[in-house]
Structure formats: structure tokens, C-alpha cells
Amino acid sequence: MVLAEIIGSKQQSSGSPKRRILSGMRPTGRLHLGNYYGALCNWVKLQEHYRCYYFVADWHAITTEYEAPQAISGFIPEMIIDWLSAGLNPEKSTLFVQSAIPEHAELYLIFGMFTPVPWLERNPTFKDQIQELAHKDLATYGFLGYPVLQAADILMYKAEGVPVGVDQVPHVEMTREIARRFNHLYRPIFPEPEALLTEIPKLTGTDGRKMSKSYDNCIYLSDPPEVMARKVRQMTTDTQRPFRRDPGEPDRCLAFPFHRLNLPKERLTEIIQDCRAAALGCVDCKKLLAEALLENMAPLQERRRHFEAHPDEVRDILREGNKRAREQAKQTMAEVREAIGFNLEFQF
Ligand code: SF4
């Protein structure tokens, strides 16, 4: 299901409260175009239709960065500026930092008490990530249990929807199972959230590999225009087109997914024809892409300049978001404690 369909099917009649959704990002570095087109663009659209909670998942970042967690907090202001520059509106979305809401840890602990270990061991992304990050020792309790922390993040705000790519659907399914188990064991207080499947474009880095800061092949949202343009010029295109005189194939071209995201349809049709007829060379074609990308990124860069010049504003936005999130978290935890009979206020 694509995003437009999700919005169409879930929108409510005016007057009814907006459904809640939650999503987060790990602060492990500057955000790049893969993050922007894969998640942030959708977040910005979703805030028009849902009550959105977006959080900086700094505790999740420790699951893989536990040997050097000191760098994590340094990435948080930069990430919030990336979000605001991309168009997240703090009037419409609650932006907060996970570790500023200690209730997440408490709910995680309670969920951990009744989540069967085989559920976690079955998690397909657990095995994939262990292989992908083979250079790190991830045989830890925290790494195995991160879907339980995700469940706590989602259910804390009683989110009914979680925007995810198809590979993240099993995590949402586990959250539903945890909600069901809690509701069955104690009291039905949690909704079972749905995965809001979003189309994630397949974008590669400038060298044709997965866009990743560890490969040093990213185009960052914070790159100045001249750096973005240079990186576009360096992009791998159709590897089966060694010479300008050879016909190319946009479907093989690793830069073309970026064309699709940045150029109007009519222009794309011309480019496809000209590429296949060898009437357009890759140097000129990437020049067109760079121009379109810079034009589309101009409003983001203008907002970035504003927020970089006003760090107090960014701090205030985050302070207010943390406050709003904490109010909701306190409310949920009061219900949870009462449901499990741990309401100490009444006992002492
Ligand atoms: S002309 Fe454009 S679409 Fe064709 S291979 Fe080169 S960069 Fe890709």
C-alpha cells in the first residue's frame, strides 16, 4: 500500500480526534537523502492527517553503539534541525527525545517481564543485523530486546499506526502481540497498532552501494549546494554504458531514482528517450538532476539557515515536545501501574 492510499483509507470525518502515529530515528549521524526520501518526506505528509509523535531514539542507538555512547547526544540537535528543515512542524507534531522520557524505560521493563524470549529470537531483523554488523559484538540482552523497547515507545502514546517499510512490519506485529498479552493479563488499555506501509524508494550512494555514512557515499541534507552538486556529478550511472555514444538504460542507471524524485514527469519521459537513443550524455543528464535537486532543496536549506542561527528556538521546540510527550507518558504509566497493581501512591 502506498502512502496516499493509507491516508485515504485512514482519514476520519472532520470533528473526530486524529489517530495517533509514532515513529523514531536513531541519532547516529547527519541525515542523508536516503533518510529524507525514505522517511522524513512521509513524516511531513503524515502530520497533516494524524496526531504525530516523532522521537529521537537515542536509547535505541546504544544497542549497537554501547562501546562509545558519548557521541550519540551530540547528534541530537543536528537531527532536530534536519527534521525542522525538512518541514516537520512542532505545532502539528510532537518532537521529543526518548531518553528525556524515563517512563519508556519503565514500560520496557514491565513488557520485558512477560515477553517470551522465542518471540525475540524469531525476529528476522535480529539475525540480519547481527550479520550486517558482524564487526560488533551484538550478543547482548539489550540488542535482543530492542523490539520490546520499540513496543514501549509505540504503546506509551497509544499509537494506532506506525509508518514503516515492509522489512519493519514484523516489529509492529510484535508490538501488537505485546499489547494483546498485556491487555489479556491485566487490563485492556493498549490499542493494537497497524503498520502503515510506506513506499521506500531504492536509493544508492554516489558509488552505487547502499547510501551509508560508513561507506562515505552520502549526500547529506546539510551539504551546502556546491557540495550536493559535486556529489551528484560523482554518481554512478549505467555501468553498462561505457561511452557517451553508447545507448543507456535509465532502469539500470543508479542515479535515475533521484531523477524520478526531483524532475517533472514530462522531463523524465524526454530523458528516458534521449538516454536510450544516446542523445543525452550522463554528464549533462546529471547536471539536470543537480539543478532540480538544488531547486527542491532550496526551501529546506533556507529553513536550516534559520534554525542554525537560532539554536534557542530549537531548544525551546524540543523542551516543549519533551514536555508534551512526558505528560502523555505519565498518564499512560499511571494506567499501567494501576493495571498491574503497582500504584505505590495508595500504599504508602
Ligand atoms: S543519461 Fe541519465 S538516465 Fe541515462 S544513464 Fe546517464 S545519467 Fe542515467
Structure description:
The structure is a single chain. This protein has 348 residues and is mostly helical. The protein has 16 helices and five strands. Strands 1-2-3 form a three-stranded parallel beta sheet. A two-stranded parallel ribbon has the order 4-5. The longest helix has 30 residues, at 311-340. It starts with a helix and ends with a helix. The model is unreliable at 1-13 (pLDDT under 50). The structure holds iron/sulfur cluster.
Short overview:
The chain is mainly alpha-helical. Helices cover 55% and strands 7% of the residues.
Bound molecules: iron/sulfur cluster
Q: In total, how many beta strands?
A: 5
Rg from alpha-carbon coordinates: 22 Å
Judged by helices, strands and strand pairing, the structural class is mainly alpha
The major β-sheet equals:
3 strands, parallel
Dominant shape: elongated
The run of helices and strands is HEHEHHEHHHHHEHEHHHHHH
Q: What distance separates the N and C termini?
A: 52 Å
Strand order in the sheet with the most strands: 1-2-3
Helix run count = 16
Strand content: 5-15%
